[in-house]
Each structure stands twice: as C-alpha cells, then as structure tokens.
C-alpha cells in the first residue's frame, strides 16, 4: 500500500500521511483505529489502544520507506504574517552591520566556512562562482524561482520611503530594463553542512530562521562569534534573496543530499489587504499543526538543483549559497571582471595565512573564483595563491610551519622568530582581586619586505583559524629601518593547544567587534573579564612594538645583490619588471582636511602619495559616509578642483608621471547625502578610474 492509497482511504492528504510516517505528527485516536483495520484486516479488536497499535502493528515497508523527497510541485513561497501587536521592521537590521561589499562578503562567508571545517586533516575548499544570466537563461531561472509568486510582494515592498524600499525599486527597475541578472554562488566542501532540525537548535535553524545565533561548534576556535556574518549574504543581494543547498555531514530525516530552501528578506508590506512582516521562505508546506502554512526545506532532485543553479559537484559535505542579484555597493567593482578580481584580492588579503601550509601543519583553506555567462565559462577558475599576493608574510608563516625560523636575520629571505607575552585577565568571579592573569606567549615572525609590497613595516595579527584580524603599525621604529613584514600568531594560530592558548583565544575573541578587525574595548570584554583587561591589550600592543624594535636592532642582513647605492646605479629598466611593480603599487591618501558648511556639504582637501609610474595616474575619488550603524554609502561630488600637481577632468583627478605628491580639493553634493553631513564621518577612497594607469 502506498502513502497515496492510504490517504485516499482515510480521506486525508498525502502530505498528512507523510507527516505521520515521518513522525512529525500523529493521527487522531479514531483515525488510528481505522488505519489499524486497513493495515491489518485480520485484527478483531474493534478498539485497539494507541500504544498497542504502535507496538504490534508496524507500518509496512512501502509506507515507512526512508523519507522520500517531497514533490517539487508543492514548493511555494511562504510570507511571514505581520506581528499582531502592530510592530513593523523595514528591513533586516543585521544586514546593516556590514558594508554591502564583495570584500566583506568574502571575509564573512569564508570565515563561516573555516569555522565549519569537518576533517582536520584536509583543508576546507571554498569556490566562488559569478554567473550572469540574460535571455532564455534568465527566464528559465526566474521560472524555477517562482518569480511570479513573489513579484507582487516586491512591488508592494518597494513603495515605501525607507532605504530598503528604494534599493528594491532600483533593483526591479534595472531587471525590467536590462533583462540581466547576476548570481554569486559560494560553495564550501569539507564542511559540516546545515545539519539539525527544521526549527530546533542546530546549524540549519541558526542560518535560515534566526538572527544573532552563531551556533559555532568548534571547541572555542571559531573566527566568528556574533552570528551576524551570514547577513552579508542577504546584504549583497539587491533583492534580499538567497537560495541554499546543503549536503549534510549528519543525516536529517534519513537523508543527506540536496536539502534546499530559499530565504527572502523584505520590509513590512501589504498585499491584497493582508499585512506581512517581511521575511519569506521558499519550500514545501509544513502540515505539522504547530507550523501549519510554514514553508520548510525539501530534498530536491537533480533537475530542480540545475534549474536553480544550486547543483554541487561530488558528495563531499558542505553548503552552497546562491546570492540572487549580487552586486558590490561600494562602487569599486561594477563589471564581471572587476567583481572577479575583487573576490580574488579579498580572499587573498583576508585568508592568505589560512592557505599556507608547511611540514607541521597543512593549509586550512583552498579558495578559487570562476565567472560564467549563461552557463559558459567567461573567466576560467583561478585559485588564490597566497605566495603571489603576499610573498613576504607567506614566506614568514611557512618558515614557522616548517621549523626554519632563525634568531637573527643574516640574509634577505630569512625569517626571525620571537615570543610576545599576552597577559589574559581572569573572568569575573574566577580570579583573585590582585591576580593579573595567565601569560600566553604569542609568536612574532619578521622578514624583509618584498620589493613589490605596496605597504611595509606592518604586523599582521591573527588567531584561531588564521584569518587576518588587523594590521598593526609599530611605533618609534629605528631611523633608516629597511622595509619589513611581520606576522603575529596568537591563540590557536600558534599551533599549540594548551590551557593558556585556550584562554588567550577566548580573551582576544571577546575583544573583537562584529567586524573582527581589531583587538580593543568591547562590551563583552568589559562585562566578562576583571578590571584591567583593556590595559592588558594596550600592554600587548606595546610589547609587539618593543619586540619588533629589538629584532630590527639585531638585524645584520647581507645580500648577494651588493650595496644599495651600487644596486640603484646598476638597476636595469626591464619593461616586465616595471609593469609588475606598477600593478602592485597604488596611490594612497596621505592626509585629509575637511569642514562642513551650513548646507551640510563637506569641503575636503586631500593629499596623495603616489608611486613611480611611467604613465599618468587617472584617479576617480570616492566620498563615503562612514556611519557605524550600516554600510558606507557613496555620495556625489558637487565640485572637484585640481592643483599645481594635478588637474581635474570629467570627475577624475589626473596626475602626470613623475609626480610623487599631489593635492586636490572637493565639495560633496548635500542632495546625495543619506544623512546630514554633521551626523557622520567622511571617508575618501582614490581608486583608479577605468582606463587609468595600473
């Protein structure tokens, strides 16, 4: 007997019978009597007890077969009804915690993948795929997405005056006009996947149904701790829409492959007179009385996965996130090529150390980027090579992992090692009043900078899974110091696992804000640790500076290239080498002076430092509002003016070859300000304009 046959006999839906079989609900007592007779016609007991039925009459194999996939035809969008108390949310607040920037997405999503590493003997593999659709390819995808169902909700949600509504209107207008859509898929392998129940505690519910639920099961080694990073996926979507396909490391409902669901974040809106809170899910209807009308995940077949661009290669556990309408709100990457390059750079900058392996420990991560157009390769897969992007620091870390560090630098490619003490303050209630805490010895690695390094004399700090936390610039360096690069390994990044390491890891993680980009005062640090925790961090930074100065003072570097003066006289102008140097160097902002006038417009004077170049620099200055509660929205220039060292042309600043210092002035357009000028800080970026010098 099939589930459908039984449903017909008891006048119930097949979904209801499926719920009984899978244990999500039970039939009423009178139905149990009827089902008992249908499954066992020879039973004579007219009123069998429910427990007797459960013990004596198991379901036949044809009914209790292991959780067959729910039919794709039942997939639909479920929109959360509005709150009964009249409360409204005009967008997901968590999405405003970070910039809607590809570099931020790469950092947060990859960090989450590292935190879910399954096999400690193999790296997590992360693959980013950009995919642009148009024509019939776009139509097929929108059909698979059931776009017609959700479009009325978009139309109503974008009618408001809030920021999210305006962004949605722009996205819908562009889709209608250009008939083009960009997808960004983030696949990880050798990860746990979204395991756990549909609504209870677990990875699935933490990502799909909850906010501020980190749910990291990593023994204290996690890079993230706020549960905010996943929101960057939705923030990077112009439509607030992400589809998910997970291959589970632990079975759920007896299955592992193809657990699919979609989540949409909209502001409060009304459709057909019915108010909706905003969030919506793409899935199959849940017939459990507790969750009646809710859409839950389903086990998708291969054709469905292909139609939604969610098919994964192989059977390795992990998750695929598909960002629908992917964009870079910073304005730095508009074309597919620019987005591809920015993802590569961002992965290298944030995770170069996690991609370095040695004798004592292999790499924790492998990362690559591919770009497609309508299913065809536009830019072939490029794997991130940490030694190509950060040669000096990668050399330093590999020397530590290989055990080849030295006590004193004597050649240009050696790596010197020293320990830096960090005093970990006791947790409140766990230490004596005068107890300064436990000492943890962080590892400092220092090596000469590479000749193409754009920024030198920095200490790259990290812990846990070796994600870059911050770049610290030591103070009071000796006069005439030759450029160097240094790496600081703290906590589990040292490769050790003793009690002091565990305490230091937790202490430093508590000192990080949601961006995980510095070690400083946080609410968790001051409320969880005894008085003096912030002082211990300041002492730690001071000890880093002291250690760097001592290593530089002992340095006796020799080089087979001869004296520096002679090398400069004999340097050959090799075109290939010069081009490589230009691609690694870029202008930097040396100083900004700014005031706000009575209209709220910012008046800025920007001084630039420029590297040597054979061609003119063509720069496109960008003014951004640095607001703490959200991303950095760009504002337009009302006026750009050059100086004796440069000139303004069509919204760009042109600096002639040979000029090393330049200055320009600008006035922002107050009509483009998201808030009053006096209510935010101003940040100035100077990326090269399209067609400008590399």
Reconstruct the topology from this structure.
Layout (H helix, E strand, L loop, with lengths): L2 H7 L4 H8 L7 H11 L10 H7 L19 E6 L20 H14 L8 E11 H10 L2 H11 L5 H16 L1 E10 L13 H6 L22 H6 E11 L11 E6 L4 E3 L2 E12 L9 E2 L1 E2 L2 H6 L10 E9 L9 H16 L13 E9 L2 E8 L2 H4 L1 H12 L13 E9 L13 E11 L9 E6 L3 E6 L11 E6 L9 H12 L12 H6 L4 H21 L10 H7 L4 H10 L3 E9 L5 E8 L7 E3 L2 E5 L7 E2 L1 E5 L5 E3 L2 E4 L5 E8 L12 E5 L9
Parallel strand pairs: 2-11, 15-17
Antiparallel strand pairs: 1-7, 2-3, 3-10, 4-5, 4-10, 5-7, 5-9, 6-7, 7-8, 11-12, 13-14, 14-17, 15-16, 18-19, 19-26, 20-25, 21-22, 21-27, 23-26, 24-25
Helix pairs in contact: 1-2, 5-12
Please tell me about this protein's structure.
- It contains 19 helices and 27 strands.
- The protein has 694 residues and is α+β, with helices and mostly antiparallel strands.
- The strands form five sheets. Strands 1, 2, 3, 4, 5, 6, 7, 8, 9, 10, 11 and 12 form a twelve-stranded mixed sheet that branches. A five-stranded mixed sheet has the order 13-14-17-15-16.
- Mean pLDDT is 82; it is low at 43-71, 223-227 and 572-584.
């Amino acid at each position: 007997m099939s589930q459908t046959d039984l449903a017909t006999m008891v006048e119930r839906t097949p979904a209801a019978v499926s719920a009984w079989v899978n244990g999500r609900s039970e039939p009423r007592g009178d139905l149990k009597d009827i089902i008992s007779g249908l499954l066992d016609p020879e039973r004579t007991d007219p009123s069998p007890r429910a427990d007797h039925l459960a013990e004596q009459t198991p379901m036949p194999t044809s009914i209790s077969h292991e959780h067959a996939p729910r039919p794709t035809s039942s997939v639909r969008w479920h929109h959360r009804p509005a709150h009964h108390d009249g409360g409204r949310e005009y967008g997901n607040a968590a999405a405003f915690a970070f910039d809607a920037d590809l570099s931020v997405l790469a950092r947060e999503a990859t960090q989450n993948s590292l935190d879910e590493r399954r096999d400690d003997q193999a790296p997590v593999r992360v693959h980013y795929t950009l995919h642009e659709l148009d024509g019939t390819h776009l139509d097929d995808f929108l059909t698979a997405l059931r776009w017609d169902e959700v479009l009325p909700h978009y139309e109503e949600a974008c009618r408001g005056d809030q920021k999210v509504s305006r962004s949605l209107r722009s996205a819908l207008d562009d889709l209608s006009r250009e008939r083009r859509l960009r997808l960004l898929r983030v696949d990880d392998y050798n990860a746990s996947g979204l395991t756990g129940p549909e609504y209870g505690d677990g990875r699935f519910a933490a990502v799909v149904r909850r906010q501020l639920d980190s749910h990291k099961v990593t023994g204290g080694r996690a890079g993230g701790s706020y549960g905010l990073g996943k929101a960057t996926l939705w923030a990077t979507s112009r439509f607030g829409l992400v589809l998910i396909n997970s291959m589970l490391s632990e079975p759920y409902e007896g299955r592992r492959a193809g657990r699919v669901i979609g989540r949409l974040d909209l502001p409060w809106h009304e459709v057909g007179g019915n108010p909706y809170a905003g969030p919506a899910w793409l899935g199959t209807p849940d017939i459990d009385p507790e969750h009646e009308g809710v859409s839950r995940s389903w086990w998708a077949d291969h054709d469905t996965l292909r139609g939604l661009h969610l098919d994964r290669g192989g059977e390795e556990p992990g998750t695929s996130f598909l960002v629908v309408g992917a964009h870079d709100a910073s304005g730095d990457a508009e074309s597919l090529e620019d987005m591809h390059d920015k993802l590569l750079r961002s992965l290298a900058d944030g995770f170069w150390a996690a991609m370095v392996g040695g004798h004592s420990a292999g790499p924790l991560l492998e990362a690559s980027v591919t770009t497609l157009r309508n299913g065809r390769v536009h830019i072939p897969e490029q794997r991130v090579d940490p030694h190509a992007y950060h040669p000096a620091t990668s050399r330093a870390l590999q020397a530590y992992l290989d055990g080849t560090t030295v006590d004193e630098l004597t050649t240009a490619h050696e790596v010197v090692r020293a320990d830096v003490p960090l005093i970990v303050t006791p947790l409140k209630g766990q230490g004596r009043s005068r107890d300064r805490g436990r000492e943890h010895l962080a590892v400092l690695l220092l090596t000469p900078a590479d000749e193409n390094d754009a920024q030198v004399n920095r200490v790259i700090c990290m812990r846990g899974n070796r994600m870059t936390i911050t770049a610290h610039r030591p103070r009071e360096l000796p006069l005439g110091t030759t450029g160097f690069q240094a790496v600081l390994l703290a906590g589990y990044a040292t490769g050790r696992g003793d009690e002091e390491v565990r305490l230091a890891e937790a202490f430093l993680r508590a000192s990080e804000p949601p961006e995980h980009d510095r070690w400083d005062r946080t609410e968790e640090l001051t409320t969880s640790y005894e008085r003096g925790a912030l002082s211990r961090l300041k002492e730690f930074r001071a000890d880093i500076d002291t250690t760097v100065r001592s290593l530089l003072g002992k340095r006796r570097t020799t080089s087979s290239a001869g004296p520096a003066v002679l090398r400069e006289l004999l340097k050959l102008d090799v075109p290939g080498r010069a081009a490589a140097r230009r691609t690694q160097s870029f202008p930097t902002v040396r100083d900004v002076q700014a005031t706000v006038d009575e209209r709220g417009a910012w008046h800025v004077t920007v001084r630039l430092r420029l590297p040597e170049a054979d061609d003119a620099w063509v720069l496109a200055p960008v003014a951004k509002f640095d607001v703490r509660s959200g991303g950095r929205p760009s504002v337009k220039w009302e006026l750009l003016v050059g100086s004796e060292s440069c000139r303004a042309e069509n919204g760009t600043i042109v600096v002639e070859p040979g000029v090393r210092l330049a200055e320009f002035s600008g006035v922002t357009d107050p009509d483009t300000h998201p808030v009053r000028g006096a209510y935010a800080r101003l940040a100035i970026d100077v990326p090269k304009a399209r067609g400008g010098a590399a």
